[in-house]
Amino acid sequence: MTISGNLLIGGKETRGSNGEFFGIEAATGQPLPGSFGGATKADVEAATTLAWEAFDIYRETSLEDRAAFLEAIATEIDAIGDDLIVRAMAESGLPRGRLEGERGRTMGQLRLFAKEVREGKFQELRFDPADPNRKPAPKPDLRLRHIAVGPVAVFGASNFPLAFSVAGGDTASALAAGCPVVVKAHSAHPGTSELVGRAVQKAVEKSGLPAGTFAMLFDTGIEAGQALVADPRIRAVGFTGSRRGGTALMKIASERKQPIPVYAEMSSINPVILFPDALKNRAEQIATGFVSSLSLGAGQFCTNPGLIIAVGSDGLDAFIDKARQLLPETPAQTMLTGAIAKAYREGVARLEQHPEVRLVAHGRKGGDFEGAASLFETDAASFIAHHELQDEVFGAAGLVVRCRDAQELEEVLGNLEGQLTVALHVDEADLAEASCLRSKLEMLAGRLLINGFGTGVEVSPAMVHGGPYPATSDGRTTSVGTLAIYRFLRPVSYQDFPASMLPHSLR
Amino acid sequence: MTISGNLLIGGKETRGSNGEFFGIEAATGQPLPGSFGGATKADVEAATTLAWEAFDIYRETSLEDRAAFLEAIATEIDAIGDDLIVRAMAESGLPRGRLEGERGRTMGQLRLFAKEVREGKFQELRFDPADPNRKPAPKPDLRLRHIAVGPVAVFGASNFPLAFSVAGGDTASALAAGCPVVVKAHSAHPGTSELVGRAVQKAVEKSGLPAGTFAMLFDTGIEAGQALVADPRIRAVGFTGSRRGGTALMKIASERKQPIPVYAEMSSINPVILFPDALKNRAEQIATGFVSSLSLGAGQFCTNPGLIIAVGSDGLDAFIDKARQLLPETPAQTMLTGAIAKAYREGVARLEQHPEVRLVAHGRKGGDFEGAASLFETDAASFIAHHELQDEVFGAAGLVVRCRDAQELEEVLGNLEGQLTVALHVDEADLAEASCLRSKLEMLAGRLLINGFGTGVEVSPAMVHGGPYPATSDGRTTSVGTLAIYRFLRPVSYQDFPASMLPHSLR
């Protein structure tokens, strides 16, 4: 399949004239076929202007039409066939099985939101009937619905080239809410983005929707993305990436004449708390699960378990011993980009050289584009004293924090920043102690797990992939699961409207 | 009833040592009995520390206990008796009838939220059952509830000394959500605040809740309020007041180490659009309603109709003529404070001196502490060219914008900032034209009204008292009505929890 490297604006393909870049093969660092043109400010404005024009029509599409459109996107993505997987494998270095699963998840998300749209509950309709006889004043007729906030800027994520990029969770939930979407494609997988972008464009056309309903831009640097967030026609932002990137967008959004919400999913080290009895009874089993979760996808998950917290015990020693035994057998894996691999090596080196940190073990050493899992250990006092030990090292790096007792473990928890997930490994005899922590942990993270790891993120109604700052910019929401649609809605109340003027849903 | 002027912290009364100030009789500018001590930084910290300590217990109170507590507050406010009305009349200059109504509304809000708490729907419980046989991976058990965000800072509003102050809508909705509240009392009605604050304190004690569940601070300037918003234990802010005050709090909140949401209801001029047939058929009747709404409560409502937009016609002339006839008969009214009366006079003078603005009529002239209604007129082109004509003049000042035609009227709408309300006056023949505007108006305001004025704000499930920035800091919410509770909640997901560790509501 030909890669044109074009921007997708207004149902057309346009060559971006703001610089040129290439898709890079993750495993080799070599350029892949096709060159991509970066968007100029004029391209950004063209996309947002069309999105704004499309907004009034798109947001008032019937629930059935909108649901069918989401399903049409899934169908078009499916129709790309294996070319999509092949290109995504080359650009991301992720294996076929993972990408096929991710494609399934991407289509599944779109279909789940289609179902959500059809059900229509997200509109949260409310009716307060009039009471003309009420004293001292008659009661008016009030009706409420939630409407789409406006065009949404979505930033593709490097670590989910399909499920959290061009037609990923942010795009699906924004489109479901009735918001046109302008995607800033991630430069780590531009060819994958183009293929998916064209699929969305086709679905827009086949569904007879305004061409401005969807656009996709490339950016050789950060200017186009920044211009997008600053654009007055953009009314919300979805982002998954680094804390530096997310906070930069938050700042731009808050300094606009009309500030807008930024839903940035930024960084998390996803603490795993090992309780005494669980360690006593099945330290090795937990270690096996941990090493597997730590190294999954080269550790490039937002929910990667980067922190193990436990009170020192024979069980903890056994856990560490098992991890020390397993890690050297764990193969290195190609990372998403050369820059990510380099940053990972630097992060691991910082931990290695940290005076208060001891190495447990490294995984099997890999090449320049690969990341090997690494596990370190420190004590609670050092962890508390050195805030930098909380910095996410994106990749398969883990740190065990050994506590003197349960009280020190609580102190460690009290020093943690906001997280996406906290996992607890407990056996029957640990339940009472673990229960006492629940309240503290609820304030720390958006999702709490028992006897598991956070790396599997269900796309379902009860999922929260979110959490207090700095895990995300806005802990009141989730970016995965059906609740994500609420990020892009606002309530409007209609008072004493004649039926003919009311939106259909409120008549 | 004695006014102590004390801060209310931890179930006790404490004299604030950071300066002294007095309640001022609005009608005379003279000090009232009782002197008030401002909170020091230590007082702020004492209040927030206790609030944080109370949080874990308070947020896990049973729905019944929490509802009963809200009702107990209403009962204690009722028990203050007429002393509350007398003091509020003196401090605010508002008439007895209005304040008795406002007291009823305050108690009604508390009881409405009690009902909302009992029903429990605000927790938005979600259940995704496990499926151990799912391929390729078993599906975990996921359950979701919404929990309280943490202690909330509430800033009392000058214009609602009861319904949007110490135990007003923000406090009621935050307490309903499970958040302890620290109130920064408005210095325009400190005695009223103290009486209500003590009532809340009594309800806390009688309900057996932690003393930190509620605190009330006085501030001689802005330092205590600023320290409150910057305090790491405060997790959300409710504010009703000026745009300057609201945006200052937004800035502090966004620059915290952990940014927090600020729900600031700031300024709105609440456009009223008069359609041709309505003007043709009943210009005088609409003018009568308008002058009454404009001058209600000396115009000191967030939803005061400050802007009339219409296409020039005989009907519009008749409307203006009727207003010109009615206004001089409209008595001046005591304003909330001398500073507000002065700012109002200055705002009116700016309009009078504006080269593009013509006076329609003034209301009956009043004294230094009173505000007289004033109506002005300009043309659409001037209104568009002079952005300052959109600045809210807090009080009973109105501006008629005369448009050449429907297209120019749309241009005026396109130039407006976010609003709380937009009202449309229409007759049967106007409906088609008005319907075409609905979509634009939905993007402009949180509440749209037909043939009414926004000054009556129902406290009900379908009310939105909110709107796009700068009407509020966050257009995704409302500060009035039951939907307000959602401002203070965030979702948490529980994965594979044993029943004994789950919150009761999710078992």
Automatic annotation (TrEMBL), chains A, B:
Residue span(s) of domain Aldehyde dehydrogenase: 34-457
Transmembrane segments: none
Stated name of the protein: Aldehyde dehydrogenase (NADP(+))
GO terms for MF: oxidoreductase activity, acting on the aldehyde or oxo group of donors, NAD or NADP as acceptor
CDD domains tied to this protein: ALDH_KGSADH
Pfam families reported in the protein's UniProt record: Aldedh
Keywords carried by this UniProt record: Oxidoreductase
InterPro entries documented for this protein: Ald_DH/histidinol_DH, Ald_DH_C, Ald_DH_N, Aldehyde_DH_dom, Aldehyde_DH_Superfamily, ALDH_KGSADH
Gene3D superfamilies registered for this protein in UniProt: Aldehyde Dehydrogenase, Chain A, domain 1, Aldehyde Dehydrogenase, Chain A, domain 2
PANTHER family per UniProt: ALDEHYDE DEHYDROGENASE-RELATED, SUCCINATE-SEMIALDEHYDE DEHYDROGENASE, MITOCHONDRIAL
